Amino acid sequence: MWFRRKKPVISRRLSLAARPLRTVEQELIETPDGGRLKIPLRQRKWAAWMFRLPEGSTKTFELDAMGVFVWNHCDGKTTVRQIIQALAKRYRLNLREAEVPTAQFLQMLLKKGLLGMDVPGEKDDNIQSD
Q1: pTM of the complete model
Q2: What whole-number distance in Å separates Cα of residue 88 and Cα of residue 69?
Q3: Cα dist from 109 to 2, 59, 89, 93, 118, whole Å
Q4: pLDDT bucket at 127, cuts 50 / 70 / 90
């Protein structure tokens, strides 16, 4: 309990200026209603003594069309704000309707370790204000 690290708290402005980047090798198989994201599983060294993963094991994530759209924009160059604006334009949503599910989807991908975020520092001049 005493050893838990506090999660860093970043402002909304900085979180929208962050650039999501895929952190895993993946294969995206697009389907008419979205896509399947296949991630190869790697054997953990500490678990190898207990069991072995079969060669070529993968974990599959089902994505809807919006999920595929967001995933394709997670290139490390596009900011979260730009992804939200592109999603709103593509699916004719207002910014709030696009922001909430996009933020939740990105958080889920972060928790699963599929994405990393390049968050700019407070002193960066290239951050747009809200």
Answers
A1: 0.79
A2: 11
A3: 27, 14, 23, 22, 14
A4: very low
